[in-house]
Here is the input.
Amino acid sequence: MSKKESGLSETIKVVIQALVLAVLVRTFLFQPFTIPSGSMMPNLLVGDYLFVSKYSYGYSRYSFPFSPDLFEGRIWSAQPKRGDIVVFKLPSNPQIDYIKRLIGMPGDKIQVIDGVVHINGTPVPRVPHGDWTPENGGSPIPVYLETLPNGVSYDTLDVSTHSEGDNTKVFEVPPGHYFMMGDNRDNSLDSRFDVGFVPFENLVGPARIIFFSVKDGVHPLEIWRWPSDLRPSRLFKRLSGEQ
Here is the structure.
């Protein structure tokens, strides 16, 4: 074999090894995810790119590409924590990924009254925390700091005081399921609506860190737009709810 052929062979081996490593990392450790909507504002923005920890809750069929029907439930499972920002498969259509905050644990009774979340009859503390102005220059939106019973705190938006999700029935979370809500409370399709309760099996993992962020509508490979549209303050930002 000539030196040229030997060099080509080594290059091919390195490329294959790198691809196999990337597949293994994505399958078992960390999966990249991009934010498609504003339902988690102000904490997650359209154009944020983040890593989801695949191993934190153990593995289900939905942890793997194409969701092969290899087993039921989860293996090496660990319970998620209240307040985690979770990527999950939509129960009604597992082909679709959703990202919301975990509010209700199995057995909890969840109700929203006048915009305040109640867990097992106790209101979740919620205090004014300034205003948030959208990047598009819209009107400032009131922000409320919400603190869950386990001490996890985060900002929520209250666009309207009379939205459909501000007053709900009591939702009793079944065993093995979770109740999810978006931080942008008046603009989130979540467990208050058609999403319903999310089975443990459908959880992909918690969002851990934002590794890249550009303004809404900008493709990440449009490098020439980075000087004006990159969000440097969001790079490598650790996400709340992972305590």
User: Anything to note?
Assistant: The chain has one domain: 3-238. The longest strand covers residues 93-104. The mean pLDDT is 88.
